[in-house]
Specification:
By secondary structure, the chain is α+β, with helices and mostly antiparallel strands. It has six helices and eight strands. An eight-stranded antiparallel β-sheet has the order 5-4-7-8-1-2-3-6, covered by helices on one side. A hairpin with a 3-residue loop joins β2 and β3. The longest helix is centred in the middle third of the chain and has 74 residues.
């Protein structure tokens, strides 16, 4: 049966405790059985065993004198100085035990450090995946918003072009743009659709402004627009229901933001 990554990590964490003999009999047997097939855990045990052995022998081993041993025992346990002397084996164990504890602590620290590094790596991968997913979601939302705007514009154009009171006005290019041409489709109830082609890009700080010519002396502004890089325009403008019937259209180049009445050169005119 294939071992999961989580089960492997749990066993690998026991390497330090195994080296210093801190596992229960069942845990030790399970860990030993695992190292038979896991090269990584077996190598970690070998490395930690070397560390534990080195720590146990890191300082010289000295047999304390009988007098010093008696004084220490008397101060710690209250036993008299004539108490039986400590055997050489007990003395060796008293020196070795602190280093054994230090080896166990170091082994556990190494194991935990490796596990923490693994977790940091996994967190980094997950954060990268989350960032990519967020970017894709944001891009999808932008595309959906663009499609909705395009669909809304198309629906508005269809509504105007299907109006029973539709009026069409063709516009011709003027000296600043002799190759330009345009058409305006107006419906009192549904608005104005304006399409154009071959318009030059507006100069810096300027924009195109569409004017509705009526029987009244002053032209009425329909709105502002800028062509795409190919000089094309497809725009929908709302017009007031009480707008006098147009008798013509004109396009001029004006400062950004538009003006109340035409001041710039005429680029398109249709009567």
């Amino acid at each position: 049966m294939t071992m999961s990554s989580t089960e492997h990590d749990e066993l690998r964490e026991q390497a330090g405790a195994y080296v210093v003999g801190a596992l229960t009999e069942a845990e030790r047997d399970a860990f030993v059985a695992h190292t038979v097939t896991c090269v990584e855990c077996a190598a970690q045990v070998q490395s930690l065993s070397s560390v534990a052995d080195a720590l146990a022998r890191a300082v010289p081993q000295h047999e304390p004198s009988p007098a010093l041993r008696a004084r220490v025992l008397a101060s710690v346990t209250g036993r008299s100085a004539t108490a039986a002397p400590m055997s050489s084996g007990a003395a060796s164990r008293s020196v070795f035990v602190p280093w054994l504890a230090a080896a166990a602590s170091l082994a556990l620290a190494v194991a935990l450090g490796g596990y923490a590094a693994t977790l940091r790596s996994r967190v980094g991968v997950l954060e990268l995946r989350l960032h990519d997913a967020t970017e894709r979601a944001a891009e999808s939302e932008r595309q959906i918003a663009d499609l909705r705007r395009t669909a809304a514009g198309a629906q508005s154009q269809v509504a105007v072009l299907a109006a029973p009171d539709l009026v069409r006005i063709d516009l011709a290019g003027q000296p600043p743009a002799p190759q330009a041409s345009a058409r305006a489709f107006w419906s009192r109830s549904r608005g104005l659709v304006f399409t154009a082609s071959n318009l030059p890009p507006p100069r810096a700080g300027t924009t195109y402004q569409l004017w509705i010519l009526t029987a009244q002396p002053a032209p009425i502004s329909a709105g502002l627009f800028k062509p795409d890089p190919q000089g094309r325009v497809a725009a929908v403008f709302e017009t007031p229901l009480d707008l006098p019937k147009p008798i013509g259209m004109a396009v001029t180049m004006e400062p950004d933001g538009g003006v109340p009445s035409p001041t710039g050169e005429k680029y398109l005119v249709g009567l």
